[in-house]
Amino acid sequence: MISYLEFEKPVASLEERIAELRSLDTNHDVDVASEIERLEAKSTDLLASTYASLTPWQKTQVARHPQRPHFRDYVAHAFSEFIPLGGDRAYGEDEAIMGGFATLGEGENARRVILIGHEKGNDTQSRIRHNFGMGKPEGYRKAIRLMELAGRFGLPVITLVDTSGAFPGIEAEERGQAEAIARSTEACLALETPMVSVIVGEGGSGGAVALASAERVLMLEHAVYSVISPEGCASILWRTAEKAADAAQAMRITAQHLKRLGVIDRIVKEPVGGAHRDVAGAAKVLGKALGEELESLSQHDTRTLIRMREERFLQLGG
User: Fold this and answer.
1) Residue 165 to residue 96: CA distance in whole angstroms
2) Taking all residues of the chain, what is their mean pLDDT, rounded to a whole number?
3) Could you tell me the pTM of the whole model?
């Protein structure tokens, strides 16, 4: 069952009606096929038109959809192999940030990479285990360790960013959260192999930048990327989170805005109605885009890659 967002209620009503007619068609000798076909066409058109004109706040809701695919889903559908590595060799393991050796695609087009990303979980138990995708210092230090491995073995790095922000708890601050984020950002910028980052859901604050300081930054069509959440921004500017929609509009957090501003390089299309409606399809399109980007970057030497990253971030806001 798909969970419907508030702005999807007209679509939900149509799909509920279609389900009722399908039940009638199954249990009774009544021909309702033509009516089902008409309603399905209407539902498809309504869904497409709705998603073609989403506001920044509505895109934020899509990016946070409870059924939106996360790191494990993309591993399952876009990668033919994944060997996870755990621990930062200093404190412990952080399951909010996962990573390891992976194979992008399969067959002749398969490419060995280091894959790192945030995992939010898909039910209450897994969300608690993965800390809702909010990384702790040991998670970012694990990412640094994996990037060092990438450099040692000459493997490109792919990061899948999906976090509301780094974990703000006292224990994280005690273990050096800010330093770990800064070091992870530094490791991205100094990486000697190609790096492609993708904002697949939420890209929140330094917790996202620490894994997204690459020479190529992509965003899924309905992902969002910002220095602070709309609610947080609204609380600061208007002293109320109820102004979150206004804050989202003002901050230019959508892929479309950020592409025009030069913050990201490419928008990856999602299935109509969002990636949560066709996880396998969304992962397939993303996998293809990642392959294309890595193929392009493989033509450059280490010095050029590092210079590309430096120039990319120095020119932001210029």
Assistant:
1) 11
2) 93
3) 0.92
